[in-house]
Design brief:
Elements lengths: L3 E6 L7 H14 L4 E6 L4 H6 L11 H5 L8 H4 L1 E2 L5 E4 L5 H11 L7 H6 L8 E6 L5 H8 L3 E6 L3 H20 L5 E7 L7 H17 L3 E2 L7 H8 L14 H12 L5
This protein binds adenosine-5'-diphosphate and magnesium ion (MG).
């Protein structure tokens, strides 16, 4: 048994990457999977939601596991328990991961593979590894893709998001060709969808057209805009445990099923 590794990505901020990463992790632990959440966003919002205890700004985290400045510390050394039984976390706090991102830019060798290599020793311990990325197609996001079996884009239905997806798909294709032949693109989760607005319906239709034309999937179901979802995620509450969002838990159960095709490795 080795973990299936999944990256949630979009170079645009605020589309719901962290929200979807957290709730997919919740859906997986709910069905008894052992899950590792890797916070590859220097802003650390996934860590804020999912760490079972408050972590100091300078707590060891992903930055230490990736940096050549700290060769003693490996990824297993920085894993902490998450808020749910069955969930572990590679945390990100403080400014360290931003510094490591800059270090990677100038690293001469194998910089794209750092996270992949760092995760290798823990693959057998988990069924699913979920990597949350920042709003950028930088070396950290490329490291996340190279380390992954599956990439999922998280988008909202608006003009800029539809355009940004083209660039994201290019990056994923380039990473596949040069560094990660194992990587597949599962498609786009449309998040924070407000069915009451005409614009949203318009841009969702555009997104579906683009998906057809370019041969990628818009993953069903569409995730609605609901403050109950935002509140649950911000507080590290799984939707199925949230009195106001219980009815929405199945959304992410279905996404998890589609993305993993029901078959964890
Ligand atoms: N389905 C949703 N409904 C309502 N608010 C949401 C939803 N998903 C995310 N949000 C809110 O939108 C903001 C951006 O979401 P977040 O997951 O942090 O995006 P990203 O990680 O892509 O930057 C956050 O304030 C979050 O609480
Ligand atoms: Mg985020």
């Amino acid at each position: 048994m080795t973990a299936l590794t999944l990256t949630l990505t979009n170079q645009k901020g605020g589309t719901g990457k962290t929200n979807c990463a957290v709730q997919l992790a919740a859906a997986a632990v709910r069905i008894g999977r052992r899950v590792l959440f890797v916070d590859a966003d220097p802003q650390g919002s996934g860590t804020a939601a999912l760490a079972s205890e408050g972590l100091d700004e300078d707590a060891p985290g992903l930055a230490n596991a990736l940096s050549n400045q700290d060769p003693e510390t490996t990824l297993p050394d920085v894993i902490v328990p998450g808020v749910w039984a069955g969930l572990d976390l590679v945390p990100t706090t403080g400014g360290g991961l931003g510094i490591v991102r800059d270090e990677l830019v100038v690293a001469p060798l194998a910089r794209e593979r750092r996270l992949r290599d760092a995760l290798a020793p823990v693959l057998e311990r988990y069924d699913l590894i979920v990597i949350d990325t920042g709003p950028s197609l930088d070396q950290l996001t490329i490291n996340a893709l190279v380390a992954s079996d599956v990439a999922v884009a998280v988008s909202v239905a608006d003009y800029f998001s539809s355009r940004g997806l083209v660039q994201l798909l290019d990056t994923i294709t380039t990473v596949q060709q040069h560094y990660a032949p194992q990587l597949t693109f599962a498609g786009v989760i449309v998040n924070r969808y407000d069915a009451r607005t005409k614009q949203a319906a318009h841009w969702l239709a555009q997104l579906r057209e683009a998906a057809d034309a370019q041969g990628f999937a818009v993953l069903e179901p569409i995730v609605p805009a609901r403050t109950a979802i935002a509140d649950a995620t911000a507080n590290g509450v799984a939707l199925h445990e949230s009195p106001r969002a219980k009815d929405l838990a199945d959304l992410f159960a279905q996404h998890l099923e589609t993305i993993t095709e029901g078959a964890f490795k």
